[in-house]
Amino acid sequence: MADFNTHVFTAAAAASFGATVCTKLLGLPVSTALLLTVGGTIGGVLPDIDLKHSVPSKILFAVFGAIAAIAWMFARLDDFSVLELWLFAIAIFLLIRYPLWGVFHQFTVHRGALHSLIAAMMFGVLTAVTGEHVLQLASAVSWLLAGFVVMGVIIHLALDEIFSVDFIGARIKRSFGSALKLLDTQRIAASCLILFITLVAWFWTPPITELVLLWKNNQTLWSELLLPEYFLRPAP
After folding, report:
1. DSSP 8-state class, residue 100
2. 149 with 180, same domain?
3. Over its length of 236 residues, how does the chain's per-residue pLDDT go in tens digits?
4. Out of 3, 88, 117, 149, which could bridge 127 as a Cys pair, Cβ 3.0 to 4.6 Å?
5. 142 and 30 co-located in one domain
């Protein structure tokens, strides 16, 4: 499997390129491009959340805990004092970062159900829901962010498969085929749970029509987007 740095830098490079294309193609602000880059980079390490002692797992659960704590704190801003708000927020963060993190790893196996295309779809749907209802993003941006997260996850899975082939020794490692798969047939219960979460979360996703309209109204010619202007000028 590819190491952490390979996953991060590859996903970040692909996400930044994609964000640049979307920014110019759809006329997006720079802040949205940065958000899409971050989303794609996070997606590039998401599958390793099931590796208990990995850096991605600890970072992602810390991020989830921080988001949940901040969201709760601002939602209940008028109900408690500042001290109470912070104490409850810290408790929520610690609960997600440690006990929930521990319970999660009791029921997950590395390169299991989360290393699959249906898991990538689940991460995308959950991102769209989070973008709309937690981050208060526009519907189109929520779906773009979801797409970048899915892209990052698929890049991660593809890299794991590529690194499962020893090109120098001309052999295939035993781990080949365990990353880029539709679903985990050895853990049907976990795969069914992922599908269930995806279907339930779909009911809270924002409408995709706004993204479709944005694409139709702001689309630029690919030649004008990718090539320098002097390449497009007619010859004298």
Report:
1. I
2. yes
3. 567 788 889 999 999 999 998 888 888 889 899 999 999 998 998 887 777 666 767 777 887 788 778 877 877 788 888 888 899 999 999 998 888 877 776 666 666 678 889 999 999 999 999 888 877 889 999 999 999 999 999 999 888 888 765 433 444 555 445 567 887 778 788 889 889 999 999 999 999 888 888 777 765 555 556 655 555 555 45
4. 149
5. yes
Residues 96 and 209 in one domain: no
Tokens representing residue 10 in the block = 């590859």
Distance separating the N- and C-terminal Cα atoms of the chain: 53
Q: DSSP of 49-91, one letter per residue?
A: GGSTT-HHHHHHHHHHHHHHHHHHHHHTTTTS-HHHHHHHHHH
Nearest-angstrom CA–CA distance, 94 and 145: 27
Instruction: Say how many residues make up the chain.
Output: 236
> Are 162 and 207 in a shared domain?
yes
Q: Please tell me the distance from the alpha carbon of residue 166 to that of residue 84, in angstroms, as a whole number.
A: 56
Residue 98 and residue 209 in one domain: no
Domain carrying residue 86: 61-109
